[in-house]
Amino acid sequence: MDHFARLGLPAALELEPASLDRAYFALQRQWHPDRFANRPAEERARASAEAAALNDAYRTLKDPLSRAFYLAELKGVALPGDGKTIDDPDLLMEAMEAREALHEAQTVEAIDKLAVEARDEVKQALGNLGTLFLRGDKPAIRKALLRLRYLDKFADEARTRRANLERSSA
Amino acid sequence: MAYSDKLIDHYENPRNIGSLDKNDDDVGTGLVGAPACGDVMKLQIKVGPDGLIEDAKFKTFGCGSAIASSSLVTEWVKGKTIDEAGTIKNTDIAKHLALPPVKIHCSVLAEDAIKAAIADYRAKAVQKTEPQAGKPADQTAEAAE
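The joint structure predicted for all components is written out below.
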């Protein structure tokens, strides 16, 4: 059973955080181990397996980016795995320039500015991605997800650089 | 994890960091990425009139192994013909730097980068012999703002 089905939700990128929470907490109550404390061992095992699967589903779907990657997998969009390289010039040029700008940013403020811009890019890209999923445009979904992966990496690097900068100036 | 001295040396004192003019006809540029780890690598070669690679530069945003792999490749290709440079294998890079198994993909990236740079140089050479009027200028220079 896929994560969307497990939570009784439609398999789509757009998902109200409140409905996800509602579905998760209701099912989590239903399969809570306390309710199975006096039940036979196999029922207890089933309940704990269900609870674990629910947690997994919730964690995957809660974050929009991880939801997007999961949905792509469900829809059969193949992304390059470990050790696979890409040579899309637009995407890589953008990634290279962003990382260069981050590398050159010397103040926390400068880094924050870049991070905010990147966050807006992510938001916008996720918005567009919703439409691409509805249209089922696999090549475009793939391209958008690769870009999101680089934007996500950028956010990681920005956090690291910010922390290093704060530590060295403290 | 124990990294080899060669790897640490290339990481701490990377050779040939920088850029060459990618619009120069004698310069080939390879830009490749490994999306699974978010690495991006640019490797450039400048080929002299004698057909030998006279300069090579790289810029890599990635882990230490990716930086060391690209640094090593720029060092290796200098003075070679592009045919010779094209025979560099990721396994040679991985072996020289004693890359741990989980970092082998970094050497794959470096091999793909030099191959892409050679392909770019060759494509430019072909274009030079078959001049096309009104070719659009390179638009990637002012991307992303």
